[in-house]
Design a protein that fits this description.
Helices cover about 35% and strands about 15% of the residues. It is α/β, with parallel strands linked by helices. Helix 2 links the parallel strand 4 and strand 5. It has a domain of about 230 residues: NADP-dependent oxidoreductase domain (TIM Barrel), CATH 3.20.20. It starts with a strand and ends in an 18-residue tail after the last helix.
């Protein structure tokens, strides 16, 4: 496992992180989830990402049990706040001071730790003054409950505004952004990445394998494999745009490129996002331990310019690059 700095901070994290969106507390059983966490630790992953909203808080609890008893200083634990949790009351979502403080304390209990290494605003909250949100995050840092502050799926404009306010008010600075990023989905490249570089912000990217599509396991003209994400309820909600015949056909053309590079298709997908020097880590999920082991084979891989060009040529017609393709809700969910 190789390590990178989280943005321009002094924190080193494993360049491949383990995340439990969709899987823990919902898609996979507890024993399988724990086996995946153990596999991640066994292959050198030290960075773990979750969120309070995943499985309506259950995913944090699963991760907390999986990391219990380990040397806390050897781990980097990330979580997030914004989306609704609990019964869905008027203050059970968003980035108000009330929701941030209450959510952080609840996350720490579920994770079984006194602090998280990175606390992230899971989306931008249009209903809360940004000064209020940033002050709440800064107070958590000063209390020692949070070591670093990040955001997730924020636009370049929102990042710029937050950085300006934080600097003016003497708040702890933002060190990371967590966007969706893969060889298919490249919406951050035009605006978010240049803005982040300017401010010393690193990308903690999710879905580097395009929710499994870039592994090549979904074949055009075939039913989705039983037990796979695309065959689940979550797949119907989140993966429709990724499982068109055009996309699945194009992805199969990556297979000889991966073979020529000596990689599996999953490893090629993860290695591709790690070629971007603004990426601090790539988050991988798993429903089986062997998937974690395979993904880590991408650590330290340098893809040749010829390989990068070949990937671009194969995917040219299906790449999403519009900066506006991802945005935060205008009102709290």
């Amino acid at each position: 496992m190789e390590f990178r700095y989280l943005g321009n901070s002094g924190l080193k994290i494993s360049e491949i992180a383990y995340g439990n969106w969709i899987t823990h507390g919902s898609q996979v059983a507890e024993d399988t989830a724990q086996a995946c966490i153990k596999a991640a630790l066994d292959v050198g992953i030290t960075t773990f990402d979750t969120a309070d909203v995943y499985a309506n808080t259950a995913a944090e609890s699963v991760l907390g049990r999986g990391l219990a008893g380990l040397r806390r200083e050897s781990l980097e634990i990330f979580t997030k706040v914004y989306w609704p949790t609990g019964p869905g009351g008027p203050n059970d979502s968003g980035l108000s001071r009330k929701h941030i403080m209450e959510s952080c304390n609840a996350s720490l209990k579920r994770l079984g730790t006194d602090y998280v290494d990175l606390y992230q605003a899971h989306r931008f909250d249009y209903e809360t003054p940004l000064e209020e949100t940033l002050r709440a995050f800064d107070d958590l840092v000063r209390q020692g409950k949070v070591l670093y502050v990040g955001v997730s799926e924020w636009s370049a404009k929102q990042i710029n505004k937050a950085v300006k306010i934080a600097k003016e008010m003497g708040f702890d600075r933002i060190v990371s952004n967590q966007p969706q990023y893969s060889a298919i989905y490249r919406s951050i490249e035009g605006e978010v990445v240049p803005t982040s570089r300017k401010h010393g912000i690193g990308q903690v990217v999710w879905s580097p394998m395009a929710q499994g599509v870039l592994t090549g396991k979904y074949l055009p003209g075939h039913q989705f494999p039983e037990g796979s994400r695309a065959a689940s309820d979550a797949g119907e909600r989140f993966m429709g745009w990724l499982t068109t015949e055009e996309t699945l056909t194009a992805v199969q053309e990556l297979r000889p490129i991966a073979e020529h590079a000596g990689l599996t298709m999953a490893q090629l997908a993860v290695a591709w996002v790690l070629q971007n020097d603004n990426v601090s880590c790539a988050i991988v999920g798993a429903s089986r331990p062997e998937q974690v082991t395979e993904a880590v084979g991408a650590s330290g891989v340098k893809l040749s310019p010829a390989t990068m060009l070949a990937i671009d040529e194969v995917l040219e017609g299906i790449i999403v690059s519009d900066p506006k393709s991802s945005s935060s809700p205008k009102t709290r969910p």
